[in-house]
Design goal:
Layout lengths: L1 E2 L1 E4 L11 E4 L19 E6 L5 E7 L10 E4 L1 H7 L9 E5 L2 H9 L4 H30 L1
Parallel strand pairs: 2-6, 3-5
Antiparallel strand pairs: 1-7, 3-6, 4-5, 4-7
Keywords: Membrane, Transmembrane, Transmembrane helix
């Protein structure tokens, strides 16, 4: 989806604890059947085509904000990361996030507690696999 303008989100929708993007309701599908539209709480990647910067946000409807079909509502942190301005013409692309992009986003998340938890989870999974292989190795090798 091509985006031409960015609207400021209200304070109750802003911050790292929310990480949402508000879209016009015509771009949303609450039934989760139309793959041409986005689903609620689906991870989306917003890319600035001018410089390649991108952020990950979760899709939500417009919630009473006056957002036209080619506009999105973003918080200050996302606008800053994308190097764009509110209510000015922008060249952004919104698309569904790939699984590896979600992992990468959380691996480098601005909130240190989120970043640490994903790294500890990956380390625990690696150690678990190593422990399993160590346990079954005597049976396999002889």
């Amino acid at each position: 989806m091509k985006v031409e303008t960015v609207i400021r989100l209200p304070m109750e929708d802003s911050g790292l604890q929310h990480c949402i993007v508000r879209l016009n309701n015509r771009n949303m599908d609450s039934t989760r059947k139309d793959r041409n539209r986005f689903f609620r709480r689906e991870p989306l990647v917003i890319v600035n085509k001018a410089d390649g910067s991108k952020v990950l946000r979760y899709a939500m409807g417009n919630s009473g904000l006056k957002i036209c079909k080619n506009a999105i509502g973003l918080d200050y942190d996302a606008v800053d990361a994308l190097s764009v301005s509110y209510k000015q013409e922008v060249d952004l692309e919104v698309r569904r996030a790939k699984r590896w992009e979600i992992w990468h986003w959380y691996w480098q998340h601005p909130d240190q507690s989120v970043q640490l938890s994903i790294k500890l989870g990956v380390a625990g999974a690696v150690l678990g696999v190593m422990g399993f292989l160590t346990g079954v190795a005597p049976y396999i090798l002889g």
